[in-house]
Write a structure and sequence with these properties.
Chain lengths: ~400, ~90, ~400
Amino acid sequence: MNDRVAVTAAGVISAIGAGSETFGCNLESGRSASAPSERFPGVTVAEITDFNPQPWLGAKGIRVLDRSARLLAVAAKMALDESGLSQENAETGDPNLGLVCGTVFGSLHSITSFDWSGIEEGPAWVNPMEFPNTVINAPAGQAAIKHKLRGVNSTVCAGLASGLFAIHYAAEFLRFGRARALLAGGVEELCEESVRGFAKTGVISRSGVARPFGVERDGVVPGEGSALWMLETEEAAADRGRTPWLEVLGFGCAQDAHSINGFDLRGEGATEALRQALANTGISPEQIACIVSSASGSRAGDEMEARALERVFGPQLPDVPICAPKAAFGEVMGASGAFCALVAGLSLQRQAIPPTAGYASDSVRLQLSPAGIPISGEYALVNAFGCDGNNASLVIRLWEN
Amino acid sequence: MMQNGQFTPDQIRTHIKQLVASVTEREPDEIEDGALFKEELGVDSLLAMELMVAIDKKFRIDIPEEEFSRATNVNEAVLTVQRYLPEGAVAQAS
Amino acid sequence: MKRVVVTGIGVVTPIGSGRETFWNGLLAGVSGIGPVTSFDTSAFPVHIGAEVHGFAPEMHLRRLNPATTGRASQFAAAAARMALADAGLDPERLDRKRTGVSMGTTSGEPVYIEEYNNIRKAEGADAIPGDMMPRYPCHVIPTHIAMELDIHGPCLMIPTACAAGNYAIGYGFDVIRTGRADMMLSGGADAFSRITYMGFSRLGAIAPERCRPFDRNRKGMVPGEGAAVLVLEPLDKAKARGATIYAEVLGYGVSCDSHHMTAAHPAGDGAIRAMTAALKESKVSRDDVSYISAHGTGTPTNDRVESLAVSTLFESRAREVPMSSIKSMLGHTMGAASAMEAAACSLALSTGWVPPTINHEQPDPEYDLDYVPNKARRIDPRIVLNNAYAFGGNNASLCLARHED
């Protein structure tokens, strides 16, 4: 079993742009997509305005795909094209190519709407075509049909840590020899049902600005989108003459078992996830060049992460460049681990961590910045810690032959 | 537009073509009366069911699934709908 | 990599709870299908379901509050406790960091969606409490098990619908064999849902009276609910503590039809590839397979394609491999189904008996495989395959073996 797992491409559709290039540039400019919502009046979100999947998916054959399926299929198309693994011209799809997708709510809107139509119109007149979209693995299934992905196909849910779990799940499958290439990441859509709940429970930032780790932080800005990596075995990439971009290294995870909807301020799960990721990579905290944090502007969540980082990094924590990119693209929930992993990859590539949008220089514990911070070193650490008890961390580095 | 849920045969045809066009992602004028749903228009079993429910809703009728599956094109669908519309609902064009 | 064994079984099912009741019921051909009682089906053309009756969450849950815990989580946590008890383990003395949970589901906690809409209909959207939606996402199911038992290891939900149980047990297998945990509680759970019922009903997929997998006159599936949890451990640790070992998990295979959201690939392509991958990973050949636990929902299409897939893969031997569907008795318990089937497979391997496909009256002339019609049979299987197929074309086959000292 050859252990090495390579990242050879990426696809992303987000509130700060489509495609890694645009996404990365907007991150570097310190822009935030937080704005009063067009789709949900009175709420501040980081939404993808005027989302049109046609440039990537064409005009036909997407009628029955809901928003989550479209977002995922768009990110998949980008990663497939960039990696050279698109099955568009293949008679039948490669059975060694698949998809692992993380999500929290899945097609919540589709499910709620389907039930609603039964209430309003009666069970006889619900649209049968909408029923398949009511299963949580529907976006992954739809993307597989659209892009002829016949290999491993899975959907995973570990709350806000889903995106990192998906990457690790896919990496392990590659190590087990169950596939040669897997798209891995996550998708989350903003919908009436989830946004309404966030707004009512005071989760959303009152000021409309997410200030991760900031002393004045007052909540989260919900976001949406999809981010996927193309993961391949070293052998598969070499066979195709592709030079990998990144390597997926150690993963760590732990469950707080505290609450389904409340950060555990003791941060034991987060601490454990961090320690495992480092141990499984075989490195010590000093070797981490930069940290892409999971912080979202949540008063409790950001505190929990800060404590866990302090516990693991000790007094050198303020020396480690760190960013909190959810300030830019919002809390994208099941996709957030994948988004943050992508930020880590871009940071290593550019040897600089992007600014944390709107950061006001008020944290002494952490080296965040409203401007980019140069980094030196080969390992990046990505966190995904949830208010749902799930915690995950991942270490990556630039590929070296 | 006829009153009281009445439809002329032409209207029935037009509505059905619109629905077939919608589920197959075509323009209504691309749908020929005799074009086979399954073999020529790509209507698989799930699409057929979607079409049937949409037709039921449009005309406020309830066509049994087995019955509807015997309609292989627009012409036959029109006849099926006429069979299931209540008496007096099919009006003559004036 | 470590070898992985099943040392405990906990189930909450339409034919009863607990390993013994479950297994005795399956061998006796007990059916859990009856008129739906949890909601009014008068507006539907069908009225039967496989519900769990008489489940009292307060009898099983010690830490979780049933009033704020969805039904699927209640089933899951109860099944997890039962599995630990069945494994002879004291939940207060687990190695918490080295114990994890992996579960499958189709619907998560649909009651919160239904409540959301009920309130919206009755009082308008503004009356909907804000804390309702956070209770719905499917990750709450494994988290609830972790909260109930104070478990802190790897914890994951794999919501691959009707194949989810196999995926979750497969993940537990992966976690143990790579040494990330020393124990996994793995399985699946789903609660009866009007959304699911309405969907399958609208597709014309629900049988009017009985579930009759592979029978010539089969008319459909019967939605059900429940949970099943297996305790998975490394073989060396299980032996060291003198555990009862029901079976060994050898491997699993997953594939995607990439064909249609609800209809299986007509040649059973994905199903064949999933079985092939499972056998390959398990390092056994199709000639070694002594029994198949079918997906066997009872719909005309699934059963035909499944029989075709098995016939294609096993060729001339196909008729020699008994294949039964316990959905004939349990209905289709969605995300719990393949976990219940894995439990049944484990018991088949340890007892030598395989459960029947009940309601089998007329063979389908298209396929004459051995569906173990109506009566349980003692065949002392050595290697079994557990097959599961889901919407979205997700296919998973789990391979288990008899444990021999």
